[in-house]
Design goal:
By secondary structure, the protein is an alpha+beta fold. It has 8 helices and 4 strands; from the N terminus they run αβαβββαααααα.
């Protein structure tokens, strides 16, 4: 029995080690290429969110890369990329829209998505080991490729679920802060163009983020529920 479980246990251990190694590298890279954001307009809005959360302040860091994105680091820090901040400076994104990204990333932190990612990654490694041993018997050459595709689809689905959850958290926080969800929805409508149209034609089931109309639809469903 133990011998049969050994590949699975090794896969789980490998997943945990690789996740922690990746998190350590990410933390080091972010620390080396970022500074705390000092913008009085953004700080005024984040202070309103901090008051809603009963926190003294919300720290936001500026990550010096050109991509348009926001992210929550494994250690809980919130980052906006230089590319996204420059869009704000140029007027393509409003202060409220930029803050909606911060609220979304706060959702990832508050909902424990980083920890869940570690568990998911380890579980996927274990499942990959089991499926490789099973499918490899019947499809010896392309079996591992089939398993990788299946695991990629599972990972994409889990990621989309996390994005919906972070959107819901952000919507609630923005409403409680008096900012509202309008900037959140308007930014979602802009994101594809701001990011250069990436993944525009990709099938929804292969994407790590839900399609924009579905995200906006979910936010509006929450608004209708709250109003009722």
């Amino acid at each position: 029995m133990i011998l049969r479980l050994t590949p699975i246990l090794l896969a789980v251990a490998y997943g945990l080690i690789m996740y922690h190694l990746s998190a350590w590298r990410t933390k080091a890279r972010l620390s080396a290429n970022s500074t705390e954001l000092a913008d009085p307009v953004i700080k005024n809005l984040t202070d309103r969110m901090a008051a809603a959360l009963e926190l003294p302040r919300i720290r936001v860091h500026l990550y010096e890369v050109e991509m348009v994105n926001g992210l929550a680091a494994p250690d809980g820090r919130i980052f906006l990329t230089r590319g996204l901040y420059d869009k704000y400076r140029l007027g393509a994104v409003s202060a409220e829209e930029l803050v909606s990204v911060i609220a979304h990333e706060l959702g990832h932190v508050a909902l424990g998505h980083t920890r869940r990612r570690m568990i998911d990654f380890s579980g996927q490694n274990a499942m990959r080991a089991v499926l490789n041993s099973l499918i490899g018997r019947f499809i010896p050459f392309i079996g591992p490729w089939v398993v990788d595709v299946l695991m990629s689809l599972v990972a994409a689905r889990l990621s989309r679920d996390a994005e919906f959850e972070a959107d819901a958290y952000a919507a609630a926080l923005l409403v409680k802060s008096g900012i509202g969800t309008a900037p959140q929805k308007s930014l979602l409508e802009k994101l594809t163009d701001l990011a250069g149209g990436a993944n525009r034609q990709m099938p929804a089931w292969m994407m790590s983020h839900p399609k924009t109309p579905k995200r906006i639809e979910a936010i509006e469903a929450l608004e209708n529920k709250w109003q009722a």
